[in-house]
Amino acid sequence: MVKCVYLECPTGIAGDMCLGALIDLGLPWEYLIDRLNSLSISQEYQLRSEQVHRQGQLATKVHIDLQLATKHNHHHARHLPEITQIITTAGLPPRVTDWSLQIFHQLAIAEGAVHGIAPEKVHFHEVGATDAIVDIVGTCLGLDWLGIERLYCSAMPTGGGMVKAEHGLLPVPVPAVLKLWELRKVPVYNNGIKKELVTPTGAAIATTLATRFGDPPAMTIEKIGLGAGSLDLPLPNILRLWLGTIDEQENTITNQTITQEEITVLETQIDDLNPQAIAYTLEQLLAVGALDVFTQAIGMKKSRSGILLTVICHPEQAVICEEIIFRETTTLGIRRFSQQRSVLDREIQTITTQYGAVRIKIASQKQEQAKQIINIQPEYEDCANLARKHHQPWRIIHQMALDTWYRNNQVN
Hints:
With about 400 residues, the protein is of the alpha+beta class. The chain has helices spanning about 15-25, 30-35, 70, 80-90, 95-115, 130-145, 175-185, 200-210, 275-285, 320-330, 380-390, 395-410; strands at about 1-10, 45-55, 55-65, 150-155, 155, 160-165, 170, 190, 210-215, 220-230, 240-245, 250-255, 255-270, 290-300, 305-315, 335-345, 345-355, 355-365, 370-380. About 35% of the residues are buried.
């Protein structure tokens, strides 16, 4: 059994909504306050919670009241190295420290990409001050206390309108949220509400920790936690956390377990389409979350040359992938079939090299009571971006990222 949560975000997600939902699920208030007090910022805020109604539904609302001096400073300006120091010196549980650092690194990468600066140089004004540290670390404390092993998240509403920020008015979704969605290929939709529904802090939590986005997994629900937002909306402004377990089908091989999951395979052959249109179609399919897309050269009827287009995706993504194929290509039919695939557990960690941050993909295999790391690979795009920026060979950045990860984890 794998203990998991599913974030259902009908009116978006924010850090305080995550924290409120976890308190609603039973995160002890005294434990939360005690652990947060180990951070060196306890004098900057007061934390309180209350039960509120949103469109007739009862939920937990968390308030982070900044102290007067902090308010006058307009959120004390902090950069990534200072936030890292605050978190790493607090004596938090190991998973809490690791998750919190990953979330802030993901946020720094997104903000840095928006402003065209290195992640460690990002000035966390809207998202990196006292309240965001409390939201992020508090959320990680709650997930760790509940023993969560896996997190899933729904598609996210785009919202709309304008919001006042440090640099003036910004369109919603704000640039950092859009970049976080782009980095994880998050499915989004318009629910008709023209407000800021997804904050950078909420987006960073979800895009860093979620295994995947979309419909809920097949799970046994144990409890639902409701975290209230601050907006008065036509829909209940509530984040719903489904707490439960997943009974995974596993093959046991010499005391090791390999997880299996169901995937959908879409296939169609095409012989009358410009190759440039095929390239664009592949980009569109990957953008909506297809797991893999590839083509093969084939011979078709009447000796015509063509291609076989194959898409591998989660079952809940099959419909949108089919819509893209019909819209962008000349095919008249798509074959669909289900398969089982064996997968290694995967997680993303972010390390910092002398040239900048690089995400590391770590693949592991369950082995009785422990996990055995099978493969470690830096993200290609992160290495490529740093290589272009600093005029270094890609292979040097790639090797430096590997060396840094091994050194940080003391693995020979």
